[in-house]
Amino acid sequence: MVKLSVIVPFYNVQQYAPDTLRSLKSNAREDFEFILVDDCSRDGTPEILARAERELPGAVLVRHEQNGGLATARNTGIDRARGEYLTFLDGDDWLAPGYYPRLLAAIEELGCDFLRTDHVQCTARSRSVHRVPVGRRNTVLNPREAILPADRSTSVDYAFAWAGIYHRRLLDKGLLHFTDGLRTAEDRPWIWKLHREADSFAAVNLLGVFYRRGVASSLTQIGDVRQLDFIRAFDQVITETAADPEADTLLPKAVRTYCAIISHHLGSIERFEPAVAKKLKSLSAAALRRMPQDVLDEALDSMDLQRATRLRRLRRRPAAAGVAA
User: Fold this and answer.
1) CA 4, CA 17: separation in Å to the nearest integer?
2) Tens digit of pLDDT for each residue in 121-175?
3) pTM score, two decimals?
4) Is 312 exposed, middle or buried (CB count within 10 Å of its CB: 0-12, 13-18, 19+)?
5) CA 113, CA 198: separation in Å to the nearest integer?
6) Cα(162)–Cα(159) distance, rounded to whole angstroms?
7) Parallel, antiparallel, or unpaired: how do β-strands 4-10 and 32-38 relate?
8) Strand 94-95, strand 85-88: pairing
């Protein structure tokens, strides 16, 4: 029986894939499988993965004929996974040796639906530890209770799918798949759904994932139209949260986070191509008008003056004909 399935999408990461694969080899175990999803790479990545299929114990190579994006590639891996537990890694990140056995032991000891871990962010030669915003560690908690408060960073703001491990029963409940086709912010609706609908989770003091920031090919560094998928992602968060029995309690957090992300993108709008920057403003203005207006008023009143002014100005922007996310 496969104990752990590790889902690793790759797309045009020939510079980094060897490090990723070496770190997977240092985490191999006879009851682990590594599902390597080549999302139609056009560089040397396919050849690197073909070699890994032969040399990495437990490797399963899957190729996309068309590029579908990270969410779709992860879904391909989820559909192939046979493990009792699942986790994720991105094709340009890497792991400490022996990290996955320790991660598996931690969730088995606690017996919860999913586990969240800290990680190391790597930007050029800089290293910084980023921690799950959960105060109680090594304790099984109710995921819904970790969504709030609205005005502080909480577990739903720490949306990295690879910073954790997930029991297969979540897959059986329909909670592990990502929204197909999302090119960015794909983790946001996913983590909100987990926290609304899973029964239990925990955070542990376990470091072992090294997250590479500042990669030139990463969507977080590219100011093209794919970045605007955060609108679709957060629209989904708002719609699904509004249908929750505790919508009145949870929506202020969802709306405030959406507003903060819109403000963040507007604050660095110069990195977008001119046509994309114009579309960002139009789509964001339309998004503000779709939000529950009373909840939006409260969110803006709670934000700092600079962000609130920026969003209020955008809210008054005339609606453009035919604007859609």
Assistant:
1) 21
2) 999 889 999 999 999 999 999 999 999 999 999 999 999 999 999 999 999 999 9
3) 0.93
4) middle
5) 7
6) 9
7) parallel
8) unpaired
